[in-house]
Amino acid sequence: MIVQYKFDLLNVLIQSHYDVSALQRAQVLLLVYLQLRFYKFPYYR
């Protein structure tokens, strides 16, 4: 699932060159990815 997040993030970053809202989607995906990491692995902090 995390690999899928990375691929989605990569696709959104590629599309962000043509779409401004895609950049916002990339930021949201990154926030969700970080929150999932902190939620699943809180000891990484």
TrEMBL record:
It comes from the Eukaryota. This is Uncharacterized protein. It comes from Helianthus annuus (Common sunflower).
